[in-house]
From TrEMBL:
Keyword field contains Nucleus: yes
Similarity remark: Belongs to the NOP16 family.
Sequence intervals crossing the membrane: none
Protein name, as recorded: Nucleolar protein 16
Keyword Nucleus in annotation: yes
UniProt feature, compositional bias: Basic residues: 1-23
InterPro entries in UniProt: Ribosome_biogenesis_Nop16
Keywords, in A-Z order: Nucleus
GO cellular component, one term: nucleolus
Main location group: nucleus
Length: 209
């Protein structure tokens, strides 16, 4: 048995002033609930799993959507090959006849589903350096990405596909590209119009092949 050093043994002192029950709660806690819908419908007298189940949500995803079982899939395929498909269909019909009542707080799941389906505008913004770089490249070469890649100020050695992605991303953010388009006098132009020579892209995948 290896003996511990006297210093390490001496430094390990029990702190009697610390509340161990409160410390255990802090270690096991995952922080406050940030979702307002779940927080307002939460009943502190019940367990978290019971609360989540009453809201129509899944507390354990592995139980709600289990991992596919290869053995069960083989058994089902064997029954299908041997002609037991009609019996399986009858079993499914009998099992689906029993319907459970909806959870008492199903409105929470409906609110979360409605919020998830709503369109949320992207808040992504490019850095000022990339905006200046994209504007300078468009002023110098238009939308000729291969010429942009050969520019001496392309310090990051971006390929023409990477430059095309950066330019398209810059033009897809109205807050950043609107002042530039207004300065160029292209604000009333349609960027999706291929017949307009100002928006013609050079060095694309179609032209390469």
């Amino acid at each position: 048995m290896v003996r511990r050093l006297r210093k390490t043994k001496k430094n390990q002192k029990y702190n009697y002033n610390r509340n161990r029950k409160r410390l255990d709660k802090q270690l096991k806690s995952t922080g406050p609930i940030r979702c307002l819908e779940i927080k307002n419908a939460l009943d502190p007298r019940k367990k978290l799993s019971a609360n989540i189940r009453e809201m129509g949500l899944a507390f354990n995803v592995n139980r709600t959507i289990p991992v596919p079982n290869a053995k069960q899939n083989r058994i089902q395929l064997t029954r299908y090959v041997n002609g037991f498909l009609e019996e399986d269909a009858a079993d499914v019909e009998t099992s689906t006849e029993v319907k459970r009542p909806p959870p008492p707080k199903i409105h929470v799941a409906q609110q979360l589903e409605q919020e998830a389906n709503e369109y949320v505008e992207s808040r992504f913004r490019l850095p000022k350096g990339q905006v200046k770089f994209a504007c300078r490249m468009i002023d110098a070469y238009g939308f000729n990405y291969k010429a942009m890649s050969r520019d001496r100020t392309n310090y990051e050695q971006d390929t023409w596909r990477q430059l095309r992605q950066k330019v398209r991303k810059f033009l897809s953010i109205p807050e950043q590209c609107t002042p530039y388009l207004e300065k160029k006098g292209w604000l009333d132009c349609d960027m999706d119009d291929p017949s307009d020579p100002r928006w013609k892209e050079y060095g694309t995948d179609d032209e390469e092949c």
